[in-house]
Amino acid sequence: MPEMPEVQGLVDFLRLKLLPPDAPAAVVDDVEVLSFSVLKTANVPLDLLAAGPVSGVERRGKFIVIAAGGANLVMHLAKAGWLRWSDGLKPGRLRPGKGPIALRVRFAADVDEKPGFDLTEAGTKKSLAAYVVKDPLEVPGIARLGPDALDVDQESFVRLVGSHSSQIKGLLRDQSVLAGIGNAYSDEILHAAHLSPFAIASKLGDDDVQRLFEAMRGTLEAAIAGASGRPAAELKDSKRKAMRVHGRTGQACPVCGDEVREVSFADSSLQYCPTCQTGGKLLADRRTSKFLK
């Protein structure tokens, strides 16, 4: 699932394409909906996006927001979605339901093959979402967002962690508490902080919370720097290569050499290093257990 660093990379890339510093802003030419499930709104017509030039591209948590014409196109890539840019999309309409493309946006140009992007989704579980709204806060997921993880100062972070009795990995992933962190970067942050994903947030000591705050900022800032300036097509591979434990089950931990282990859930999994994070103990591979006995 794309998280804050990759979404910020996509936003930076789109901003250069749609709001170039040395040329007029792009204008939406056409929005083509190819999957019935992708568009979550009906009150604002799609053609309102073409009523004027693009005026902004921003990130809200893990959402991409493009302000254009008299509306906002808000996109959430969910677990298996992606944004694929093309400098020249072939003319002609696509057939709905054929292939992974769920939504296509073309921008005006004096050529047949216009620039634009496709929202694609792999797999059968369709959770990719697009909204056309007057105000991004009309999107329920944005309205529920907590503060952006990189906007929280240390004092606020200490209060936040101390006020929650949930497991720390779940807390980091809760978008209503901290916006932008998902499954992958929560694994990476907890590894950097030497903390078990099952640790209870409110029971962490002062030193633990200090390490966690520094790990959160350091991990996210490094990932954003790594994504900066990369074309959209390179962001996924860049993310995978930078991971230390997430997605590396069975491989050696780059810090201590121990084997990276996994805990599997119904629709996701986490990875961790026993030596670095749990004092050598193996976490039970079920949601409600603390440790293997």
Automatic annotation (TrEMBL):
Residues 244-278 form the FPG-type domain. The keyword DNA damage applies. Keywords: DNA damage, DNA repair, DNA-binding, Glycosidase, Hydrolase, Lyase, Metal-binding, Multifunctional enzyme, Zinc, Zinc-finger. Its cofactor is Zn(2+). Residues 2-88 form the Formamidopyrimidine-DNA glycosylase catalytic domain. This is Formamidopyrimidine-DNA glycosylase. Belongs to the FPG family. It catalyses: Hydrolysis of DNA containing ring-opened 7-methylguanine residues, releasing 2,6-diamino-4-hydroxy-5-(N-methyl)formamidopyrimidine. InterPro entries: FPG_cat, FPG_N, H2TH_FPG, Ribosomal_uS13-like_H2TH, Znf_DNA_glyclase/AP_lyase, Znf_FPG/IleRS. PANTHER family: FORMAMIDOPYRIMIDINE-DNA GLYCOSYLASE.
